[in-house]
Amino acid sequence: MKRPYAYIAGTGRGVPSKVLRNSDFASLGLETDDEWITSRTGIRERHIGTDTENLTWMSVKAARQAMSRAGVSAGELDLIVLGTVSPDHLLPSTAVEVQAALGAGRAAAFDLVAACSGYVYGITVAENMIQAGSAETVLVIGGEKLSSIVNWKDRSTCVLFGDGAGACVLRRSRSGAKGILSTYMRSDGNLARLLWRPAGGGASPATEAAIADGSYWIHMAGREVFKHAVRSMSEAYDRALDLAKITSSQVDLLIPHQANLRIIEATAKHAGLGMERVFVNVDRYGNTSAGSIAIALDEAIEQGRVKEGMTVALVAFGAGFTWGSVVVRF
After folding, report:
1. Where in the sequence numbering do the catalytic residues fall?
2. Which of 117, 177, 215, 303 could form a disulfide with 322 if both were Cys (CB 3.0 to 4.6 A apart)?
C-alpha cells in the first residue's frame, strides 16, 4: 500500500433551498407520478436553484464550509478545481468566479468537464498536483445547476436531475496514517452520444431552433446508460482496490454516484457489500452529476457514517463516457 500524498482535510456542501417533489411534476403538465418515478429511480425529491442560487453561489457555500472545517484560509489555497457540465458561463470558468468570491488571490483555478465523474477526476488531479510538489492545499468542487439544461417537458430526463454542489480541501499528507490510497480514471468517447447535449456548444451554437427542437437540452438513452454505468463502476471499484492493495472486506463504506438506486444496488452487489455499507441519498437529491459524490461524502461525514480510521471508496460514472474511483483512508 503506497504512502498517501494527500488527505481530505474538510468537506462541505451547498444546495438550493427549493425542493421539488415527485408529486409536484403534475403541476408542470407532465404525465408522471411519485410511484412511477420512485419505482424506476429511487428518487423522491431534488433541489432546484433560483436565478440567484447559481453554480457559483452553491460552490462558494460548499467551499466555505469545507475550508472552515479544514482550518484553511482563502490565502492558503494553491489551486481550485471545479468539476461541472453546467457552468454559469461558457467564458470564463466558474472556478475563477468562485476564486474571486472567496478572495483566493494566489490560487490557480479552472473548470474540469467530466460530467458525473467530475469530482472524482478533480480529486485525482489535485492529488497528483500535490504529489508533484506543485501544490500544498487544493480546493476541489463538484457542482451543477442541471435544472438549466434539462427539458422540463421530457419526463425521461427532467425527473432525474437536481442542483447542488459539494467541496473538499485536500492537503499534503505529513504521515502515512490517512489519505488517498488510490485513484483510477477511464473514458470512452465512442459512447458519447448515449448521454449528451447535441446543441449549445461551438459546433452547434444555442439558437431558438435548437431550443424549440429540444437539441439544446440533455438527451439520454436510459437503458444503454444503465448497462454501461453498472459495468464501468464495477470495473472502477475493482481497479481502485487493486491499486490500493486492499480487498472489498476492508472497505467500510462505498459512496457511489447517486444517479439511480438500481445502479447503486447493482454496484454494491458486484462489490459484495450489503446496503448497510453503502451511502445513499439519491432519494433526496436526484442526480446532481459532479455534485453527487461530493454532497454524499459531506453528508456521510456529518451523519457519522465516516469516522477516523475508516476506508471509503468513491465510485463514479458519467457522460463521455467517463468513470473513475478513489479510495480514501480517513
Report:
1. 116, 257, 287
2. 117
